[in-house]
Specification:
With 182 residues, this protein is an alpha+beta fold. The protein is 21% helix and 29% strand.
Length: 182
Amino acid sequence: MKLNAMKFVPLIILLFMLQGYESQPFKMIKSYDNFEIRYYPSVAMVQTQSSPGSEQNFRKLFQYISGSNESNLKIAMTTPVHMEKTAGNEKMSFVLPSNIKQAPSPQNKSVKIIQSKEAYFAAIKYGGYSNTSKVNYYTKLLQESLEENKIKFTGPPVVLGYNSPYKFFNRRNEIIIEIDYE
């Protein structure tokens, strides 16, 4: 079996990048047995999407923060990486650092600068390496917990990844879902 080394370059780079960097701010509102209610303020993000399985989203976003933008500005990596699957596509977003007041336009037309919506989210944490089975399990657990607590969820599940692929212990992953909360 022949391995394509270029597929592993972004993973190796992540090893050095995602440890000890700025994280997206949120305010913890309420804690339940297995999930939390959080308020996330609006933040600037860089986002792209592709058809399922293309594995190009990370590369496009990494190129943007590495200087493939109108200012040739290198931008620090932050956590978490947002990943969302919808019918027919996969989205990935990087939160831009708080010191970036005006994000430079991307050179790649499939990369967009967006402003996230401020909102309340339910969040459930899990460890280890994330995979489809874990995402499905924790999404279902979170949705069932919200229903049991009569909290209406209004958005799709979003997977948050905090660690490089080469961090073996104490890995942090989360599923967040937008909710109606006042």
